[in-house]
Amino acid sequence: MGYRDRGCCRSLHRQSVRRLLRRAKCWIQYGQHRAGRLSQLILSLMLSLMLSQSQVMHQQERPVSNCSAEGRWLIFLMMIAMLLTGSAARADDPASGASGRRQTLLHDGVERHYLLRTPAESALRAGAVPLVLVLHGGGGNAENAEHMTGFSDKARREGFIVVYPEGTGRLSEKLLTWNAGHCCGYAMAHQVDDAGFIRTLINRLVKEYPIDPKRVYVAGMSNGGMMTHRLGRELSDQVAAIAPVVATVFGDESNAAHPVSAIMLNGMLDKAVPYAGGPPGGRFTDAWDGTPAKPARAQGSYWAITDGCSAEPDRQDHGSYIEWQYSCPAGKSVELYLLKDSGHAWPGGQKGSRLGDTPSAALNATDLIWAFFAAHGR
Known about the structure:
alpha/beta
């Protein structure tokens, strides 16, 4: 037996099993306070195993000494518990690059929520990284947006932070909407200040993480895409580029104070937000205020005027989709894609619900949007 083993045994011999368990329980309670659900479960199992082992040793009236197998097992469990506690604590540290839990921000006296995903810690240490905010559609939530778009996998591969903010609703985690002006639902009816929430969220994230404030981007689908247009207008001092998907404008939008690059995707088979404009369709027509939408191309016209681009875009028919590109000043771009086989879905992504439209395979919206964002800073 080595010197360290003998020292370990002598130390354990001076402490009762009960005292060791008290310390272990403290460590585990601390870990449960700091950890997520999975870590809490693992830590609880560790405590159960340690209690079970101690009962066996107590029944046999054996002290934890002489480096018995039981003693070594108890030490091992305690060390694992300490390691898990440390890992859980690091998960709450923004600098560690850990992420994944639904987080809370208080805005206007209301608890708002968001899901955050970070790339590898090496990417965060290498320098300031871009930030992409992805807004769910009406009736969705953060997990729904993450599932549909696949932006988290893209963020890990490309080395940027992606955040999925959540709208508001009568339920805390489901059927959430954004106040995009003329749409939608609870947020519109209650005139929720979603633009203020997103501004506050961006400020918080820039302070807590190594984010390049000149490379902040917003993408969104449907009601989230309409909100993305609104954020482009009202947060043009913070946002470098936007990507509304199956969204629209209404013709009464105010002018943005600063130019913002924009890429937009719509589907010709979309019944909820018809590409030709007019009243909303789909299953939730009452979620709007009745204002008819403009045709999809009106989105490009709005941002072309805002960014000082040409009035008429270059049009290219690629077979499965049509692409419009405006001639813009250096550093700015406005692009619009109309997919011929696409309904109300995220192209190249996953269905938003069991009854949702099947996404088109003509384009991968996430890949296209990220390439656009990566080429445009503020």
